[in-house]
Queue: 2 jobs
Job 1
Amino acid sequence: MATATVEEKKVAAPKEPIFGRKERQLLSDPLDLNNPITVQVLGICSALAVTVQMKPALFMALGVTFVTMMSNFFISLLRNSIPSRVRIIVQLAVVSTFVILVDQILKAYFYDVSKQLSVFVGLIVTNCIIMGRLEAFAMGNKPFPSLIDGLGNGLGYGAILMIVAFFREIFGSGSVFGFKVFDAMGINYIGNGVLVIPAGASIVIGLVIWAQRARNGQVEEE
Amino acid sequence: MQRSNSYILTFVFVLTVVCGTLLSLAYEALKDKQAANVAFEKRKFILTTFMGPEAVGALTNEAVNAKYDEMVKPVVINAGGEETADVADNINVAKQYKVDSADRLLPLYLIKGAEGYEYFVMPVFGKGLWDDVWGYVALEKDMNTIKGVVFDHKGETPGLGARITTPEIQSRYVGKQIKDEAGNVVSVTMNKGENGGGDKSIAAFQDKPHNVDGMSGATLTGNGLNTMMDTYLKAYNNYFKKLNSATALN
């Protein structure tokens, strides 16, 4: 699906010798030109579900980023010894381990967030972005680029999550991170109920995809 | 590259051991913290049943603990309605649910007000559509009118059955009566179908003291709630019958 080959000037990353142009591209591509949600249209279900408010969306974004990074890294380390006949189940085992870790840590230190995210933390296992990156990148690349690729894709997912959650929370409930902005400005704002339900998320994601594709001039191939 | 079966089996075995060890270590390291969160949440739930979600939400964690210690007196009763010497915090309602109802131990939380005990908070437990559902029900001093309820669940569907955790659904139970005119426990039943949600749902059931509006798309979770309420309200009634005959409440 994603065939954006346009070469653009990339956002300058901190100058580190180990962090060359290739790594920068691994990090920046998923943020825009090859975004997992808006361009590859992966991981949509959780993006619809956890974006009612910004706080759970942020934790979900961090959780997914952690899981993509770590599983990309470890699968890449093991890539030459993983038997290809059972590679999917091996990937799944590694991903599940990290997802359960995230879930346990949330339960211990961010109990209210863990309740809000409920089953969606567990469902990170089925997030197509993670398995997609493992199959498409980590199985054929070295650990460090895989780690960066995981970070980039996690951040790309997280960025869209935060944009969608921002619009849904501010227009749906009149707040940002739970802070009642309209009340603070003295405006009596009545929340738009459509944005609170998943259909509202679908509309907002659609608009984000439209805006992004219009800007990048990207069209679907026939 | 094609690997031998024994290589694959060894690889998978080692991977399983490594992942399993890692997860059990994480669980061991975090379980005390998690248990403390659950215990604290229980205190919050109990306060919420009679104070309302907004008042409890405004309290700091310290204030929740202080309020709980000040107002709540936990006791344990048996199926016959007699107080036992057990400690309520040691009773696991989920485990007791599996015990035969005649041998079940039931924790009960008596809420002290300015003039003696004002509310009774009962833990309830049952099965929703996918997994466990549980909650707390507060009765007024008349042992009939519901002051408030809190429900929680393990695996109900977000947006459908999981709505039982929202104040919108829980507020539908406020003011309902668990006994008919003859004094028999008839519980409070959630109907099928939904009359518009929010205030409309409450208004539609205003003159039905033993029914509340349902949740559209979550009738089976609602049925689970109904069974749970019915089972436990009847079980606790043995205690209330004794309390009625022994006049002194304080």
Note: The interface with chain A takes residues 1-3, 7-8, 11-12, 15-16, 19, 22-23, 26-27, 30, 33-34, 37, 41, 155, 158-159, 162 of chain B (CB under 8 Å).
Job 2
Amino acid sequence: MAKILVVDDDEMICTLVARIAKKMGHEAEYALTIREGLAKIHAGSFDIVFQDVRLPDGNGLRVIPEIAASPAAPEIIIITGEGDADGAELAIRSGAWAYIEKPLQVDAIKLPLSRALQYREEKKKQKPLLLKREKIIGDSQPLNDCLNLMAQAANSDAPTLITGETGTGKDLFAQAIHENSRRCDGNFVVVDCAALPANLVESTLFGHMKGAFTGADKETTGLVKIADRGTLFLDEIGELPLAVQGAFLRVLEEHRFRPVGGSREMQSDFRLVAATNRDLPQMAKEGKFRQDLLFRLQAITIRLPPLRERPGDIGPLAFFFMTRFCDRYKTGAKPFSLELLEILATGHDWPGNVREFAHVIENIITTAGAAPVLYPEHLPIAFRVQAARHSVGQPKASGQDEAKENFPLGSLNDFRTRAMLEAEGHYLQNLMAHSRWDIKEACRLAGLSRPRLYALLQQHKIVRPG
Amino acid sequence: MRVFYFASGSDGLTRKLRDLIESAAPDSDITRYSSVEDLAAALLREVRPDGQGVAVLLCASRAELRKMLGLTSLLADMTRIVILPDRDADTISEGLKLLPNFFSYSDGNLADIGAVFKKISLKTT
């Protein structure tokens, strides 16, 4: 017997769903507001929550993460308005198990309820996995959702597509899938589709025979064969030329292929993991990516959240990278000041995600040198400026406010440091323009060592123009 | 683009590969390291702007390749091109642990490495 909760401001709907649940042999309760519902969820241990979207005290979708994170972690079925496709999509994207439309039909309630309970039973039977995930840091709900999917992927041989913005750790997840799978003793073969010129893709993947084309002096085994009994990781699969996509689809379906210039087919028992930061469904609509390949790829899809969607992981990540870089630079571990942690957590959107975060922490550690504590002053100036603007929020309207914004009155020391850093930035810009990005010449002109120059360029985020 | 070129030997291949890198990306800033220790020291010393570094690692032997595996975390954020000393399956498995963006063999087609390097340099700059 399961415990069901219905959260809806319409008492008739509540009693209808509760009656159906009871007839199916379950216990059922209901709540008329989000607040009342959350109180019941935290006090009881419900298996299923039917959650309405429009409630007097707010939007029901907004509390899905809280419901999912409650101790019993119930499955959530969303009740949406009739024909509200956007609401339905949002419900699923928010982590709901299913959605049902109003007006409610008895079968439309029974079916998802039994399926959700069946799913929950199966989930309970699964032994908790001890995942190897040394480099995947954090314990937030969005990350844990991805880890659960990663565990599913590791337990199967299904093609898996990992999507997410640049720097979210798609490669780390791909490796972790391999390391946690039965194939972990085989090869983990990376194919960087973005690094391969179009004319090399086929021979790199499938190999080639001697004399197959100009320059093919030796028979060469392709990466698909090298991944036999292991994992083939197609990174940036959106870059795979359209012409090769068809050939690869056949290989994915049959696990057989013919090397370039070869007459005999070869076999390879590989498992495919692919990753992309591109919108493959959109590319498929535009004819730039094969729809059939896309269908095959996304047997399991893991969408990695950007760092801004998991601010709770900033602290553990900061500690992880601080330890790594302090160890690397042999400076001994250093604590973060609260102000610095706050800026890291709220002062930046992290468009470059964890990769950008790691670089900023590395920068902080190198700038801090022998300082025993890490302060906001150790952040790159460009970052501090952005964080300051972020905290200021809306631009001020009056002239006086504008003046205050342009000349925030801090201590003289702060002002001097800021002015010096700005001047240093200008100098470096001019230096690099003058030397035409000839590093040797720039070092000579500035009287700097090469490493110091690189460190300064990074600190001021000065990059060679494209 | 900053290029960390590792080659312990002084044979024709070492020179050819360097010439190839230079012609594929003439603006790149290449430093050659002839010992794994020197390469490690350089990687530790230089804080590189995000995604700006490329490592071209010409491994003369399995022993050298194994030593190189100790630098995996230092090479983590860089684009890695690895040239393996032979085509033995065990050598390939060791080389794959460096998670190369591209790998080839010391008796392989150098033109392929040049083409890949050129594409990477275009992407990076």
Note: Residues 2-124 of chain B form a domain with the Rossmann fold fold (CATH 3.40.50.2300).
